Amino acid sequence: PDEQLDLDDGRWEDIHVVTGALKLFLRELPEPLVPFSHFDKFIAAIKIQDPSLRGRCIRDLVLSLPPAHHDTMKVLFRHLCRVVEHKEENRMSVQSVAIVFGPTLLRPPSEEGNMAMHMVFQNQVVEHILNHYGYIFAD
Question: Domain named Rho-GAP: which ranges (predicted)?
Fold first, then answer.
């Protein structure tokens, strides 16, 4: 049934509850926001040494995502950029947001392999998209 959500309910006042709910929703998706088919491509792209080539590669990968993934990513990252704009008050820098959302938004198809190594690159991808939002999602 259509559940009506009362955002004035006191339990939504704690930002950690809202953030936790968002992360849980994203984690429970059958496929992550960055589809499994794109995981290795994003990891390879973030490892490119040349900054302008790396930037073009990541932008092209984001553009190649299925429309639902691309459009959701655009809205989510626009919001996360706004969160970062208030880092003085909320202590959520680009790095902090990347640490919180990296492993949720980009997951390898299987949990084998070097998880710690993956995590570094997952976070770097999210950081890159946050830092270059205007270029990646130029309308």
Answer: 1-137
CB atoms within 10 A of CB 63: 10
Nearest Cα to 100, choosing from 39, 35, 16?
16
How far apart, in whole angstroms, are the C-alpha atoms of residue 74 and residue 134?
Answer: 10
98: domain CATH number is 1.10.555.10
Question: Cβ of 126: how many Cβ atoms within 10 Å?
Answer: 27
Residue at token pair 């997952």? 122
- Token couple for 130: 């946050």
> What is the tens place of the pLDDT at every residue in 26-55?
999 999 999 999 999 999 999 999 999 999
Number of domains in the chain: 1
Q: What is the C-alpha separation between 121 and 117, in angstroms, rounded? A: 7
Please give the model's pTM, rounded to 2 decimal places.
0.86
